[in-house]
């Protein structure tokens, strides 16, 4: 099976949006899960809809906003053995 070159995801294209490619994968995965949950709940989509591909396209189009928040330890975690 032949995949056209314009369909391939180039890591540089991902790095243009988010510097760390591993964080980019986390952002896209979370968006794909969100989109998939909408489909499960009955959202009207094409039959060839793929949440992962849609999440990548949304990242490339600048439609995903994200913010990383450091988790603060709870009091029990501060004093555990």
Q: Helix share of residues?
A: 40-55%
Ranges where pLDDT stays below 50 over 5 or more residues in a row are none
Over the alpha carbons, how many angstroms does the gyration radius reach? Answer: 17 Å
What's the count of strands? 0
Shape: flat
CATH superfamily: RNA polymerase subunit, RPB6/omega
- How many structural domains? 1
CATH topology: Eukaryotic RPB6 RNA polymerase subunit
What does the main sheet amount to? none
Structural class: mainly alpha
CATH top level label: Alpha Beta
Strand fraction? under 5%
- Number of helical regions: 4
- Oligomerization status of the protein chains: single chain
CATH architectural arrangement:
Alpha-Beta Complex
Helix and strand run: HHHH
Nearest-integer average pLDDT: 83
